[in-house]
Amino acid sequence: xxxxxxxxxxxxxxxxxxxxxxxxxxxxxxxxxxxxxxxxxxxxxxxxxxxxxxxxxxxxxxxxxxxxxxxxxxxxxxxxxxxxxxxxxxxxxxxxxxxxxxxxxxxxxxxxxxxxxxxxxxxxxxxxxxxxxxxxxxxxxxxxxxxxxxxxxxxxxxxxxxxxxxxxxxxxxxxxxxxxxxxxxxxxxxxxxxxxxxxxxxxxxxx
Length: 207
What we know:
This protein has helices at 3-25, 32-39, 43-46, 53-78, 84-97, 103-112, 118-144, 154-171, 183-194. The protein is mainly alpha-helical. The protein has 2 domains: 1-50, Arc Repressor Mutant, subunit A (Orthogonal Bundle); 53-200, Tetracycline Repressor, domain 2, CATH 1.10.357. Residues 199-204 have low confidence and may be disordered. It comes from Paenibacillus mesotrionivorans. This is TetR/AcrR family transcriptional regulator.
């Protein structure tokens, strides 16, 4: 097995192991030794890839964001779709954020509680900025293909999208009896902001 392939496989193993352990134990109780034991690796081997469990948690956040972006790009690249399918790739992620057991929500809350540590604070800042950057690129792609009107301010709308998404994720950690505003409501709201009004009699162009 080539070195690069071994590296990718080990990273995948570490991510899958960490995600499963977070779902089982949460972030605070989880240790690097737990990850090493579950992955069948030594701590020394893991330290070739990450310096701490917090860095591993940052990987978990980043991967989820990349997965959403890849799904969106795959739908756009298909050439047979309209606004609905690429939007669904984003909507599915948004809906999952409303679930109390969402692993990335647990990770985000944990890391936000460590904002006094410069490296963690910078990682969270980078994650927020990357989220806005990708959201802006999604909107601009829709504008390029004529399914989102040019009047939509891509930068401001992207920041609003991420801001509201963070709020949805924070609320998921609060035990509530039937929240009035669901992930589906969130998606419908964002769609109404981005998609042209149907009364304009304009057909969507394939992405």
